[in-house]
Amino acid sequence: MSFDGKRGMRSAINRLKFYGYAAMVLFSVLALPTAAGAATTSTTINSAISSVISVFTSNGTVTANVTPTGSGAQTIASDTITVSTNDTLGYTLQIADSDATTTMTSGANSLAASTGTQASPIAQAVNTWGYRVDGLGGFGAGPTSGQSSAAIGAIKFAGMPANSSPNTIKTTATTASNDTTTVWYGVAANTSQPTGTYTDTVTYTCTAN
Amino acid sequence: MKSVIRSGILLFSIVAAACVGVVASSATTHAASGGLTISPTSVDVTVAPGGTYKGEMLVMNQGELDIAYSVYATPYSVTGEEYKPYFSPIQGATDITKWFTFDKSTDHSLKIGMQESIPYTITVPKNVGAGGYYATVFAETTDKGGAGGVVTRKRVGMIVYLRVSGNVKESGSINSWNVGWIQQAPLRADVKVANAGSVHFKAKVQVTVSDLFGSKKFSYERSPEILPQKLRDIPISWENGATYGLFKVSGTVTYLDKTEQLPTRYVFVANLPMRLLTLGALIAFIALIVFGSRRVAVRKK
């Protein structure tokens, strides 16, 4: 065999060796998952879902402007409270004035809170303000509709309680998703009520049960 | 051709991304304008006299407006069996709000979609007796009026159930288990659990409603806290459940390391027309038996 022939033979053998090794490596790589899969393990996945609760309202301020008449005019406007919680015991929603003074004030002038209560609400008297929630306590089913400076109707309102004695306006016993409660505010005034921009602050309190 | 395919893929990607964006945004924002979300809704902690506890409350703005809010602690107590919450100090009761300190300023603001962790520390004085003490940590919006009308503030509270360790008295009992034998849907039941001790405990209430063949139709499981010297009414309601049928109601209450079996009750669920129909069918069935047996007796004679 010539020198060139021997070199060609060796080269062919080397090539064969190379392909052999490559095949072994490839086989090892391909076989690896099978070998790894043969030893099975199990993983436990734990996930603690935290409890959350949220409260939102449709208005930061409920405007109920009145153009008074001699016999009295009434404006009714609403605010919608939306509560969500994943707490399985549900939630309680309360309403109260933000302080101990339950009148709406405009400088030195004031507009008294209705003398009705949630259990025994009354038709609104002139120069008072109040709230109602359809179907709750003694309010009756409603439905209440908004109105602007119309004649004072028979619809019943309660006075806003002071911050130390809030009223419960909803209690649930399970999780809630965007659960809504509509609170209606009524302001009634006649021409004896001094003009002014009357205001008061109400707090909605929401806690899980 | 390739450019047409590329343009198609690009258009599809944009539309898909927009859809995902819409879905994502609708899932995280509320239709309402402004408010707060907190987590967790309650914590149950044990601290030794003279010890401290450090915790965090997460406040989130998932609304549609930037908000300003304040954080503070109030007392927590309940009135009535329905556990109406009360957040004002009670004369003679220990006001533990003085034990709370907040690591950050109490006035905060959050932009839409943002959240903030509120670290707090509870420091229990050394001379405090063992037992249960309660407070609520509130996050409250600080909406300000200006244009008149009723300004509405929103506050959400995290209830803190604090056990000061030591020689506490743990005592509880099941006061009553009420299930009306005839009801309209939804089927309702209630169990009242009393705490005669000096510290709160969790009562795990498990109730199962099954048909007469034993097939489970509804199961209820809750673990409410029972406050010391209080009776708690735990209402159970099978919402959107069966409107007609005879059902078996059974359950257990687990508290203070013991489990008590609630006596099994049978409940007939039907509205008024169905009750009358059932009664009519029952009378007709009895009449048929009486009539049939009389005819048999006449034939025998």
Broad shape of chain A: elongated
- Indicate the proportion of strand residues of chain B: over 45%
Mean pLDDT of chain A: 87
Judged by helices, strands and strand pairing, the structural class of chain B is alpha+beta
Helix proportion of chain A? 10-25%
- Which sheet architecture does the biggest sheet of chain B show? 5 strands, mixed
Unreliable runs of chain B, pLDDT <50, ≥5 residues?
9-31
Shape of chain B: elongated
Hey, which two chains have the biggest interface?
Answer: A-B, 54 and 48 residues
Query: What is the distance, rounded to the nearest whole angstrom, between the alpha carbons of the first and last residues of chain A?
Result: 98 Å
What kind of sheet is the major sheet of chain A? 7 strands, mixed
Which stretches of chain A of 5+ consecutive residues score pLDDT under 50? 29-37
Question: What is the oligomeric state here?
Answer: heterodimer
Number of helices of chain B: 2
Which structural class do the helices and strands of chain A define?
Answer: alpha+beta
Radius of gyration computed on alpha carbons of chain B = 29 Å
Number of DSSP strands of chain B? 21
End-to-end Cα distance of chain B, whole Å, is 101 Å
Average of the residue pLDDT scores of chain B: 87
SSE order of chain B, one letter for each helix or strand: HEEEEEEEEEEEEEEEEEEEEEH
**Strand segment count of chain A:** 13
